[in-house]
Amino acid sequence: MTSTIETRAVPSPGAAAQPTREVRVAVIGTGFAGLAMGIKLRERGETDFVLLERADDVGGTWRDNTYPGAACDVQSHLYSYSFAPNPDWGRSYSEQPEIQAYLQRTAARYGVREHCVFGADVTAARWDEGERRWHVTTTAGNFRARVLISAAGALADPTYPAIPGIESFEGTVMHSARWDSSHDISGEKVAVIGTGASAIQVVPAIQPQVESITVYQRTPAWVVPRTDHPVKPWARRLYRLLPGLQRAIRGVLYAFREFLVLGMAKQRMFLKPVGALAKAHLERQVRDPKLREALTPDYTIGCKRILISNDYFPAVAAPNAELVTAGIAEIRPRSIVSEDGIERPTDTLVLATGFHVTDLPIAEKICGREGRTLAEVWEEGMVTNRSAAVAGFPNMFLLVGPNVGVGHTSMVYMIESQVSYVDDALRTMETEDLAVLETTPEAQAAWRELIAEKSKGTVWLAGGCASWYLDKHGHNSTLWPDFTFRFRKLTKQLDRENYVGVPAGAPASTEEAA
Ligand code: NAP
Question: What domain range includes position 319?
Fold first, then answer.
């Protein structure tokens, strides 16, 4: 099997032998969240910090997802930092290279690139109670940090399906998030597994190039039209001249998208027009009634992410394309056999099968005060206070962790809310001269209760689908189940009463509730 399934870490031999570097703050990851945190740290005059990045560049998921057709489902005016508007977006919905270039530029402009340690794959992070420090081991050296911030992201580690025989496949295997651009798929027989946001972009992008494309669909997706268009040069000039105009458009887009929450989380009837739009889109684009039926979901729209595309249905309906709804029984060295017994020769297998979201791999590496990893503590479900802090993990904060995901709007909005919360925590540590700041189990229980209460009756829980939004216990541990401005309000500043602080001078074993 020729595959590109490993991460893009740049290993550094002999890292273990390197001396430990002391830093005040260690941030894991340089995607939208890690960079925003770095920028905030710089803004408050902090220079003693590192951004640990396993790859060789910034960008996170936008660096890694280079598959043909990769683009954002949220308009760029909104899917960008509020403090770094870009008047030069080339399209209303930007493609991956433009977003990646924006992140590279922004990292350089705000002086955080010099804080990045590339090739630093975090293999372990352990809290030392005696030293009150985090010991972080990476493939590019070891670090001792007062504060650890994980911005490793939820769409960072691809999932590979456990299909019988997959290891025996002799053709090329590529996960959508680990695309090998050196492999030429022209004229090949290509199989794509999955019909999520990644698949519906990659399928139309490669369908005209390949001899045949077979899409293995387990669950059909609701798809609505994509109102994408190039941004005219005069409009870009106008955004340059009148930055307020771009901000106003951002505001309108934000407000419009928040309306979707009404239907998803409050009153299902508000989803009806969206469902009708998706149905009409399918009927307009797919004439064959059998294919149309196979592409029609049987769950409420919004239960899984609503996808936007104008070219997915035409690509699946093309003469060289086939949609297979029978499950995959087996993968052989040069073919795929579906459960109806049909064997289809295959040269390249594209796995658009998603990411480890409810079982974050970084959680296995972070070990708290009691010697248990986050993954062990989260065995019964991911619990946090304010989606940012975990009891037993002092001086540690999470960005893009549990219950901050959004399907309807820009993740960057949520990230900025989280960054200001963590910033306030750091400010509190400074002003109160605290060596340790740790949230309480009671605060975690209350946050969990709040999420459960808000999730009741929402389309994600009651929409009749299985999705990665829910964990193995059926709990919503990924999505923020309410308006995003409510999340911002709840995380505007540190809920100091939900934290225990240990003053700098106190002996290591003493804990004072402050
Ligand atoms: P995904 O939404 O998790 O979709 C994975 C797909 O693979 C699903 O169709 C799933 O089927 C299928 N699948 C998984 N395991 C399978 C198996 N063993 N056999 C057959 N099918 C299998 O992953 P994604 O498309 O990469 O998207 C993940 C998230 O990334 C999105 O929700 C979105 O947040 C983000 N994203 C955004 C954009 C954008 O903005 N345009 C683009 C790409 C990704 P089931 O549905 O039956 O589980």
Answer: 166-227+253-351
CA 512 distance to own-chain centroid: 36
How many domains would you assign to the chain? 2
How far is 130 from 87, CA to CA, in rounded Å?
50
Answer with the one of 315, 334, 351 that is the final residue of a domain: 351
d(C-alpha 360, C-alpha 29), whole Å: 14
- pLDDT, position 178: 97
Within-domain flag for 480: yes
Query: 362 and 344, same structural domain?
Result: no
Joined tokens for residue 343: 């064997």
Whether 148 and 174 map to the same domain: the answer is no
* Pairwise CA distance, residues 28 & 99, whole Å: 20
Q: Which two tokens stand for residue 491?
A: 């995380």
Residue 181, CB half-sphere, CA atoms under 13 Å: how many?
7
Place of tokens 């409420």: 300
Rounded Cα gap, residues 177 and 30, in angstroms? 16
CA-proximal residue: ligand 1, atom 24 (nearest): 354
Q: What is the pLDDT of residue 384?
A: 98
Backbone angles phi, psi at 38, to 5 degrees: -60, -45
- pLDDT at position 417 is 98
Residues of the chain where predicted confidence (pLDDT) is lower than 70: 1-17, 509-514
Same domain (yes/no): 342, 372:
no
Distance from the CA of 405 to the center of ligand 1, in angstroms? 15
Quick one: DSSP state of residue 355?
B
Three-class secondary structure assignment of 358-424:
CCCHHHHCEECCCCCEHHHHCCCCCCCECCCECCCCCCEEECCCCCCECCCCCHHHHHHHHHHHHHH
Asked if residue 170 and residue 310 are part of one domain, the reply reads: yes
Nearest to 415 by CA among 425, 427, 401, 429: 401
Contact of 262 with 346, CB cutoff 8 Å: no
Measured in angstroms, how far is the CA atom of residue 99 from the centroid of ligand 1? Answer: 20
Counting from 1 in the atom list of ligand 1, the atom nearest the Cα of 161 is 18
Q: What is the pTM of this model?
A: 0.94
Which ligand 1 atom minimizes the distance to the CA of 155?
30
199 lies in the same domain as 178: yes
pLDDT of residue 507: 82
User: Same domain for 39 and 53?
Assistant: yes
Same-domain check for residues 341 and 366: no
Taking the CA atoms of 18, 24, 28 and 30 in sequence, report the sign of the dihedral they define. negative
Tell me, what amino acid is at 176? S
Residues touching ligand 1 (Cβ under 6 Å) are 71-73, 155, 161, 163, 176, 193-199, 201, 216, 218-219, 305, 352-355, 468
CATH number at residue 136: 3.50.50.60
In a domain, 2, yes or no: no
Tell me the C-alpha distance between 139 and 161, whole Å.
Answer: 27
